[in-house]
Amino acid sequence: MSSAFGYALVAALGNVVGALAVTRRAAGELALIEHFVAFGAGFMLAVALVEVLPEAFARSGPAAPALVLAGYLAVHFTQHTLTPHFHFGEETHAVNRVAGTSAVVGLLLHTFFDGVAIASAFLVRPALGLMVFIAIFLHKLPEGVTVSSLMMAGGRSGGQAIGAAAMLGAATLAGVALTDQISFLVHHGLALSAGVTIYVAASNLVPEFQGKRVHKLPEGVTVSSLMMAGGRSGGQAIGAAAMLGAATLAGVALTDQISFLVHHGLALSAGVTIYVAASNLVPEFQGKRGWKLPAAFFAGAATFYVTKAILDSVS
Predict the structure, then answer these.
(1) Distance between CA 52 and CA 138 in Å, rounded?
(2) pLDDT score recorded for residue 169
(3) φ/ψ bin of 25: left (φ > 0), alpha (ψ from -120 to 50), beta (otherwise)
(4) How many CB atoms lie within 10 A of CB 57?
(5) 94-103, 145-154, 226-235, 247-256: which has the highest mean pLDDT?
(6) pLDDT value at residue 175
(7) Model confidence over 165-200: pLDDT tens digits?
(8) Is 245 exposed, middle or buried (0-12, 13-18, 19+ CB in 10 A)?
(9) What is the band of 94 on the pLDDT scale with cuts at 50, 70, 90?
(10) Which span out of 21-25, 34-38, 302-306 was modeled with the highest average pLDDT?
């Protein structure tokens, strides 16, 4: 565990480095950190899906899928339901003082599970631990930028901003220290942290660089409104939406005709589904105030389990 703690300490220092870039107003460093967002998102997703998930399923067994989902939902709850103002990246306009404090509170669970992820991965094998460390370090820099800029935008001092970033680093170290002391985390920490990692990569980092989002409404509404905004007629807009439907039908028709899709179509479509849900749809409501949209989100996840139970009972 000493190796895991050492790597976690380096990752935790990334929070402070990001905060220093803000307090020193180092434009060059901030621009570099912005690129870490995009690179880190890609690396994190790859590690989570290719390495962490298979190991999590092996360690946690049948409980793994629910634990991964729980990790994902927990981060959304703490960062975007309880926290009134949160997004990755530098805050460029004034916010009230509560916003910075609530962002720190919202990030503490996530950063704690950064430590759990590192420790759990090292329990499996050192190579996995190293890959998870790299994934976490890459988002520690923008995380430090986020919390320190929110603190300063809320009128806090540079020292307080750096202190807030250091608290996040300390939470990561606590995650490492407690993982092998708590039996539940020894067995299931990797599955929970996989859900956390997927959320951070797909729902926090990807939206920060993918530009203006297109999925303002479901696909048919999105494409038709874009067509009409571009001066096309209502008929052309409906035709464009119909083309999307035709593409879906083509996918169904071709799947059992193409051997690769017969064997691997489900895995490919899982990646597409994760992107649409986590990187397109979730960012559209995670910054909006109020409880109605978050409640609908959690209700959607709960409804899956109700539906599954019904289908299992009749099959």
Answers:
(1) 17
(2) 92
(3) left
(4) 18
(5) 247-256
(6) 94
(7) 899 999 999 999 999 999 999 999 999 999 999 998
(8) exposed
(9) very low
(10) 302-306
Total residues found in the chain within this entry: 315
Residue 126 vs residue 235, higher pLDDT: 126
Query: pLDDT band for position 120 (50/70/90)?
Result: very high
Q: What is the three-state SS of the chain? A: CHHHHHHHHHHHHHHHHHHHHHHCCCHHHHHHHHHHHHHHHHHHHHHHHHHHHHHHHHHHHHHHHHHHHHHHHHHHHHHHHCCCCCCCCCCCCCCCHHHHHHHHHHHHHHHHHHHHHHHHHHHHCHHHHHHHHHHHHHHHHHHHHHHHHHHHHCCCCHHHHHHHHHHHHHHHHHHHHHHCCCHHHHHHHHHHHHHHHHHHHHHHHHHHHCCCCCCCCCHHHHHHHHHHHCCCCHHHHHHHHHHHHHHHHHHHHHHCCCHHHHHHHHHHHHHHHHHHHHHHHHHHHCCCCCCHHHHHHHHHHHHHHHHHHHHHHHC
Domain boundaries along the sequence of the chain = 2-209, 219-314
pLDDT band for 164, please (50, 70, 90 cuts). Answer: confident
What is the Cα gyration radius of the chain? 21
Q: How many CB atoms lie within 10 A of CB 280?
A: 20
Pull the structure tokens for residue 52: 């962490």
Half-sphere exposure of 96 (CA within 13 A, CB side): 5
* Amino acid sitting at position 185: L
Determine whether 14 is exposed, middle or buried from the number of CB atoms within 10 Å of its CB (0-12, 13-18, 19+).
buried
